[in-house]
Predict the 3D structure of the following.
Amino acid sequence: MYDCQTLMKLLYPYLDGELDIKESLRVQEHLQECPYCAEVFRQEKGFLQELKTSALIPSAPAHLQDRLRRSTKPLVLLQQKEADVLKGPRPRSSTTLLAATMAMFIMIMAGLILYVLPKQAKMSSQELAKTLVEIDRAAVELHEGILSGRDHFDIMSSDPAVIVGWVQQGLDFPLVLPQEEVSSMHLVGGKVVPFQEKKAALLGYEDKNYRVSLLVTTPMPAQVFEGKETPIQNLFFDKRKEIQYKNISFNLSKYKGYYALTWTDSQYSYVLVSDRKARIAEACRICHGGNDRHKVDGFDSLL
Amino acid sequence: MLRQDFETMTLQYVDSLYHFALLLTRERDYAEDLVQETYLRAYRFCDRYECGTNYKAWLFTMMRNIFINKFHQRAREISLSEMDEVKENGYESPNGTLSSARSILEKGIFRADLEKALNCLPAQLKAVIVLKDIEGFDYKEIAKILGCPVGTVMSRLWRSRNFLKKTLKDYYEGRSVQKARMETA
């Protein structure tokens, strides 16, 4: 039979139902023999019971259930799309074929117009510079709006699949985000924003106590600055710096204390906004830190 | 688990999940974000849940892992503030504690006192009380959720329950003395 000292050690495991049958029987045996321990156990049992019935579980806010239900919708849509892809293309009706032909014709015409028009109505470098300034400034305003709480993301999640699934519904171009984390930054949210008469995806990344915004949209005017640093008067910017890296022209500017890095590749235009240059460089690793081909070694020293 | 069942299965624990998230993050906005992250992760990986095991414990473990991995800053702030833990004391009898809870009239006061006492506990100790005495997990499940050995769970339970008994007793005695003084006056 257990002694009183041993029994006190087994007090909670016994009352919590953690002892096996053999041990439980030995405890019970002692309790029948020892009125002191029996009284302690009886009081403790009452205390635990009181704790269980009196402690209040705060109810989740009423809107949380709706928020949770809504949050899986993009994933459901993604899964449906994946299932459709696995099933293969559906047989096309003659109407679908006609529509596809017309769509192709319109795309060819649009391509021709886009190719010919810029040559006919070429913007002056000052006009392009002004456009770039507007782009940076708009991106900084969006970044600041989210930070100050004036504006909010449409969806908050650190899961790229969830963000893409949600944001993609409002975009007219395909958005692809890296699925694996290679940087210490992680996604916090995303939204679709009107930008320079187009649509853009605004994505928020966070690392410890700082935030970086990435704006992705369809290609904007090419970069035009030739000098290393070009001061632009009366346009709110301190200065603008052009960086050539891997055949892409980057523009770094500062507005309202925030740095904005703008560049355009063959598919998209991007603007990265943060309060420090080093954070901009770190943010590049979100997409370009994963494999050797896309690494951006040495880029931070150019900023 | 079928995805169709996911919503019903998971939303029944929304209050418990929110409570635990609040315990981890200590802020409503953070807590809501953490619940949503957990919900989404659970949805994506619900095919990995082993039928027959405790689904609520699976969700809680997932939530704690997300908190550590995704809410770095918050997790660091909380762990730093946990440096001064409750000291190991001898056994505290629940005798005086129960006196305050016994009377129906004092039920509301006891509940308020318990809430106050729970809030005085460091998060690590409060967590074991919440997980054991309120949520009803067993020691092994709590150890898995909190990522610590079963022995640690047991010693934390001992300390936190003793602390609660002592604090509640002090509240009760304090009120009794006040009451006696008022009657004398």
